[in-house]
Design brief:
Blueprint (H helix, E strand, L loop, with lengths): L1 H51 L3 H10 L21 H11 L11 H19 L3 H9 L1 H12 L10 H12 L12 E2 L23 E2 L1 H20 L14 H10 L3 H26 L16 H9 L3
Helix pairs in contact: 2-10, 3-4, 3-9, 4-5, 4-6, 5-6, 6-7, 7-8, 8-9, 9-10, 10-11
């Protein structure tokens, strides 16, 4: 009898343990099933809270900016960011389409000349055809010399009085940018630099003058010109990355002339450059995220002040 009682007690204890294990397992399993749902609800609430702190108008503007806007309309613009109305994007489109005659659509003579010089120059280098240099010379004699020396690879043709343009000529003809290191003074940039920030106007058109530039700026401008030539000759878009420090235009035009899908590249350039040039500073402040400032293009050159102002918001 005593033995039977002990067996029953042991059996009862085992049963209780099993019940505890089963119930515990059910509760643990139940918690695991509910946990992701709870997390999703919490995440959604957090996201709603974050979004409520962001100016929806700016976010919407950035998103709309990054959509494909379709056909671009020309009206001389002073910055790269004014995509829809920018002559620079008009010319980029012409390069992508390999359509030199589209320059005739421009009403302003200054813009038209700049467009033709750009398209003639790229075509002359790409096709190794100096007949386009003659066309450039009719617009500007010095630019015609640079084109001819570049196509013929003959630096002896570079007899330009302006030191900056002459060094660009020699570097382009020899495909060697070491000559650029000899630029050690301040230089007037007339005819050698395009003003993309406050220099152009609807009436006056593109201004080929960035004012007086420092030795380091002159060296960068010279080097980018040489790298541009090398990229076009080699048909290598990767080399265009060496042309992205001053005004952004050289890199944009270089990409249009060398990539396999220039239309897509043009849209991507716009999304990643112009859109953030316009909205990065405000977006960074609203999201309290200084890393967004890093998306501002040409932050070491043309947009140096803009970039610094963006960063200063977090001091």
């Amino acid at each position: 009898m005593e033995k039977t009682k002990k067996i029953l007690i042991i059996a009862a204890i085992i049963t209780i343990i099993l019940i505890v294990i089963v119930v515990g397992s059910y509760k643990l399993h139940h918690v695991k099933l509910e946990s992701p749902t709870n997390q999703i609800k919490q995440t959604g609430q957090e996201q709603t809270k974050k979004l409520s702190n962001v100016d929806k108008e700016i976010v919407a503007s950035l998103e709309n900016c990054q959509k494909d806007i379709g056909q671009k309309q020309y009206d001389s613009s002073v910055t790269l960011s004014d995509y829809e109305n920018s002559i620079f994007y008009f010319i980029a489109q012409a390069i992508a389409d390999k359509n030199i005659q589209s320059c005739d659509e421009l009403s302003n003579d200054q813009d038209k000349n700049y467009c033709f010089k750009t398209l003639y120059g790229i075509t002359a280098i790409a096709e190794n055809n100096d007949k386009y240099c003659d066309k450039i010379a009719k617009i500007n004699a010095d630019d015609g010399i640079i084109c001819l020396a570049t196509v013929k690879k003959d630096s002896s043709l570079c007899n330009i009085k302006d030191e900056l343009k002459n060094n660009i000529c020699i570097g382009s003809a020899t495909r060697d940018d070491s000559i650029c290191q000899k630029l050690t003074s301040n230089y007037d940039s007339i005819g050698a630099c395009i003003s993309t920030n406050g220099g152009s106007s609807k009436d006056q058109g593109v201004i080929e003058d960035c004012g007086q530039i420092s030795a380091s700026e002159a060296q960068s401008l010279c080097k980018e010109s040489v790298e541009f030539v090398k990229a076009i000759v080699d048909k290598n878009s990767n080399e265009c990355l060496q042309t992205n420090s001053t005004d952004g235009l050289t890199n944009l035009f270089c990409q249009m002339a060398t990539v396999k899908d220039p239309e897509n590249e043009l849209n991507e350039f716009y999304k990643n450059n112009a859109c953030y040039e316009m909205y990065a500073s405000e977006l960074a402040k609203m999201q309290n995220d200084p890393s967004i400032c890093e998306k501002i293009p040409q932050k070491d050159s043309a947009n140096r002040v803009h970039y610094q102002q963006c960063k200063d918001q977090f001091k």
